[in-house]
């Protein structure tokens, strides 16, 4: 279960992993910030946030946890680089993106539907960009 892929990078991450490796799955997309979202997500995610993956009776929430589960369950480790050093760097970058860049995400959230044009941000976001 995911949110709008044009607005939710959290939802997009496991979706891209599944698609890239051609893992069959059923996509259920919920409209974000609607009464329907609140009503439907409550039964699937303890955090009431997307994404959430369910595999039989197991529910996995949080995009990074979902990607790790996908990697172990269906990819035999192919979701990360085979080389130890490259894998460590990839995990570090993923963890940093997952837990960092608060100012950047707050001021410049993902919006693939936004018309192209200049954007504005403050010094905190600038530090995270550079």
Automatic annotation (TrEMBL):
Signal peptide: none annotated. Keywords: Transferase. InterPro entries: Glutathione_S-Trfase_N, Thioredoxin-like_sf. It comes from the Bacteria. GO terms for biological process: glutathione metabolic process; L-phenylalanine catabolic process. One of its GO terms (molecular function) is glutathione transferase activity. Residues 1-78 form the GST N-terminal domain. SUPFAM superfamilies: Thioredoxin-like. This is Glutathione S-transferase.
